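Work Package 3 (structural annotation) set out to generate three-dimensional models for the target panel prioritized at the project kickoff. During this period the team completed the workflow that converts sequence records into discrete structure tokens, so that structures can be stored uniformly alongside our sequence database. As a representative example, we reproduce one entry of 239 residues exactly as it appears in the project archive.
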Amino acid sequence: MKELFDIAISIVNLPLTILFGLLILYWLLTTLTGIDLDFFDADIDVDIDADLDADIDTEFDARTNIDIQDVSNTEVKKEDVIRRRGKLNIFQIFLIYFNFVGLPFMFTFSFFVLFWWAITMAGTSITHSYDTDFGFIFFFGGIIPALFLTKIFTSPFKRFFTNFNNKGESALELLGRQGILQSTISGEKISTLEIKIQSDPIKVMVKSKDGIEIQANTTVEIVNQVKNKQLYIIQPLNY
């Protein structure tokens, strides 16, 4: 056990060990306390421009700037991007192919770090290179196999999260609910809005009514839902 600990805190493995430990702490806090840890508070532009092949999970049909407020629960879905003719950039293909899009980001990211850490630990342990420069070959080389392992192990969860979202959110009566918008939206820009259902925080994807500009920190009300999508229309309260 002491040898394993020494390998985990060696110069090569220490960064991933710390990151893995932080992720464990994150899931413990969110699971046991329900604390909403908003690690990312920024707009992410996802501009999907084309038909994707079967490996990249078919087509996308909306365009958006997505405001990620709760990374552990945020999922970029088909209705969150616009489909138009063109080509995907490499970063977009990367996110989609390895399931960082289509599943909650922190869920996929946690699997990736776990596999990366395990591969690096195993490689440096077998070669006794955890305290040498040679060990960094396993550190950087472990990224690619970790990504493919992440894709393999997370893919079966896609159907679960799709069904969970459809059955969970659609069953709630969201029309008329109010919340405070945390990022400015206008036109076709899409963001997230946190509302409360029986004291439980729920985050939904929203866009402004008639494309009007709504400033951040404005109290808004859900007034409609986009047909056949988990996307809701909002307007300022007393608009």
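The chain is about 40% helix and 20% strand.
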